[in-house]
Amino acid sequence: WTNGLVGYWSFDGQYTTSTAGTRDVSNSGNWGAFSGGVKPVAGVVGQALSFDGVDDYIRIEHNSAFNFGTGDFTWEFWLNPSLTGVRLLYKDPNWAAMVPNGGKFWFRVWQSALDYASLTSSVTPGANTWYHFVALRRGSSLEMYIDGVRDTAASLSTAGAGVGSNIDSTQFISIGSEGGSANFWKGLVDEVRIYN
Questions:
Q1: Which of 140, 143, 142 lies closest to 164 in space, CA to CA?
Q2: What is the pLDDT of residue 10?
Q3: What's phi and psi for 65, nearest 5 deg?
Q4: CA–CA separation, 155 and 157 (whole Å)
């Protein structure tokens, strides 16, 4: 599971301080700095983090390894939502995963309002329940897996370059918000991994 791994935040106690942040255990050096009142709690594997939906998020500074261009990549994490309409994993302006209004899982890559691809799940997650979520771009397709099963009924919408949009940017990654300023996540997160 380490092939292509460029970021891995387990949030376990030996890698996470209660107030400052969390270490990237992929050894890529991508420190995650806490903002707000992110709190350690029991997780699916060891320790997870709890976000209050008000101002909590984790900031991970830009690393060129997170620039996927038009190539393949994968995100993987466990999530336990308390409400919808929030961003979980976000890198402005080029990729995001969230539980949007309407209560579906949502995964998007975009370069602009004219070049994007969005995948919306057929699954409606329940509150206070753990889900294993994987989103990936493979060649000319976007794919979404929920609890190990590909959601083949997910709906895809595109414009311009669509799935092939170039998603390079120099912006930071936020876990738990849209760029640290809006759409704050309320719930739990565990075992976040990014592969290129």
A1: 140
A2: 96
A3: -65, -20
A4: 7
pTM exceeds 0.70, yes or no: yes
CB-based contacts of 181, cutoff 8 Å, min separation 6: none
Residue indicated by tokens 């699916």? 44
Cα dihedral: 43, 47, 53, 58 (round 10) = -140
- Name 184's Cβ contacts closer than 8 Å, sequence gap at least 6: 36, 51, 52, 53, 54, 55, 56, 57, 86, 87, 176, 177
Token duo for residue 27 = 């050894």
Q: What is the pLDDT of residues 39-87, one digit of tens each?
A: 999 999 999 999 999 999 999 999 999 999 889 999 999 999 987 667 7
Amino acid at residue number 60: I
pLDDT value at position 34?
A: 96
Q: Which residues, in sequence order, are bridge partners of residue 52?
A: 186
Cβ count within 10 A of residue 41: 12
Beta bridge partners of 76: 134, 193
Write the pLDDT tens digit of every residue in 105-139: 888 888 777 788 889 999 888 888 999 999 999 98
Tokens at 103, concatenated: 């209560």
Q: What is the dihedral of CA 1, 31, 38, 41, to 10 degrees?
A: 40
Neighbour order of strands in the sheet with 95-99: 21-22, 32-35, 57-60, 173-175, 86-91, 95-99, 106-112, 115-120, 155-159
Residues 161, 166, 172, 173, CA torsion sign = positive
Number of helices (H), then strands (E), in the chain: 0, 17
